[in-house]
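Shall we go through a protein fold together, starting from nothing but its sequence? Label the sequence line and the structure token line clearly, so we can match residues to local backbone shapes. Would you write everything just below, so we can both look at the same thing?
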Amino acid sequence: MNEFLVLDAETANLRWRERFAGRPPPAYAMFSTLLNGIVTDPAWMVMPTDEHLVHRGDGVFETIRCVAGALYAVPAHLERLERSAGAIALRVPMASGELTAAMVATVRAGGRPDATVRLIAARGPGGFGVNPYDSPEAQVYIVAYPSGTPFMRGHPRGARVRTSAVPMKPGAMATAKTCNYIPNALMKKEAVDAGVDFTVTFDERGGLGEGATENMAIVDAAGRLRLPPPERILAGITMQRMAELAARDPSRCGLRGVEIGPIFRRDIETAREMLVFGTTVEVASVVEWDGRPIGRGRPGPVGAALGRWLEDDMRNNDDWRTPVF
């Protein structure tokens, strides 16, 4: 039977470090306004249990890629962070320039030119109740951690998608990137349990929504890239960037234009391609939706062209890159 001891600080510190011994670190580095500095020891990459983010999900976040030594699309991510914070009446305690400098310093401390950055603005510690005013000061946490493999690199045959049973979030919560991700986590569980790669929501009228952490779009029978309206989804930076580039030069990726508007099941059934966009996914091609093939049942040319275009933009577009190393 376990003996529940009250540990002194030295014993607790020793046991905590034993927990991480011999394991790959979960992250390379972490910045915290509570420490007013950066740590690279995994044992210190923690948050207080009374942080409102921890027990209420009260915060907002962004996930940003560092590719070949530079952060990608930082201004777009910081603008969305500010909008999300405004939606939950949270004042981010650092200005945009300070957040950028802190992200650069955190990635640099981690020492990897390719990494993923999680930027979190949280309500802060102060109690275990639901009242956000119990937290007197908002906090920022920044974590640099390993990047996953872009989806198509690990799954060259394409993605399988099914319809989610998880209800879509209401408008205000759908368009703010908050840390309350229970519906998103349940969607990912659905996909794993069903043996598919992604699940996707539909609204009350049968309009296409979004994945757990991804945006979805189609290339319709007329060769247009069609995106769902932004009122019920979190419009992703990757999707918006690809739509912007494709609208400028649709012929570069074999398109006849870009449109935003409702996408119904019949549109998916007749689509040439179905695409998935995301910061970590990048651009993925869907070959099967709810057990039926999309297009010819294999990755299409538009998805491949957009994937190459995004890769080039991340690595070579200095206007969208913030150097770290």
Remarks:
- The CA atoms of residues 223 and 261 lie 15 Å apart.
